[in-house]
């Protein structure tokens, strides 16, 4: 209920743009599961979506034309004005921000053009810093698999758990572009934790924002931001940028709580409180690589879970229920054989393992030492792999933190890091010598 009181106070005249995230999140990020349960409480009957907003599955805007129009990655297919709100009751807009939902061109892991949705947020006040207004391509953390989880939708309903962090960036005068990623909002399965798809979606979201005429962001310098699933997206954007998006003037990347090696992540999650996240990743990989045939590995309990999970959002009653009912279960409880023993599955995971390419821009990578979802060692391995290849990496750990508090402690460090990159301040990472 801390969230409810905060949102209510912010919408009763205090002005969301004047409140920084650090004043708020201490009360609501006690744990990652706690976030899901608190937001779920807000999604009861009283929290009707503002403007009678249709969920993406019922909204023609999210259905791309067939075939896709000719164009380049990052091109806008369509756009429309939107309202960014943190008020789930009345839908009052965040002050001094103009918003557009967009549908744009990206690519899947096979290089096939696809349509991806997202949202672009731009402060209305003139940029007073040097050069053009900066743009942050913001990669969100785990939402779920259902289209109604898409941040371009939840940011217009007042029910997005990262909205306050986005507001903090807008307070700096930066524009923020948020991708829904492949299959979240748009038709088809969400390719959850398939890093190559997510990284492309983040880079093409930045391109789309810079090409949206109304936003006035042509020529804007770019930074990438992401934590948890967003850390995977940001990490892949960093690795792909030099070859895939050399046109983007990326100044720096923040990647926190990064699931860099899903083999290691899966081993840690099997039998844990958060094993539902591993099941979601299995669905995501099955969507990206149809030949993996996830259904063929499942028993009756697994098929029931799969059917129930396809439209699940974690910050919903169904999502919280799934987290609780699957807690401490094992892969063997839902399968007749372990997909991770199959060479095809292992190859797909290996193809999306971070660390193979040195980012060409400065990176801040953060990690909670006692992260109960993302194993510390695989994150440490990533930073060492990048360093060994000559990347400029600033590596910071938080000893008294788990996954959600790691997100909180990372925020001020990420804000300072990105602020300095936009100011063209030199940075020398702390790679081991």
From TrEMBL:
It holds the Pfam family LIP. Gene3D superfamilies: 1.10.260.130, alpha/beta hydrolase. Residues 48-74 are annotated as: Disordered. InterPro entries: AB_hydrolase_fold, Lipase_secreted. It comes from the Bacteria. This is Lipase family protein. It comes from Actinomadura livida.
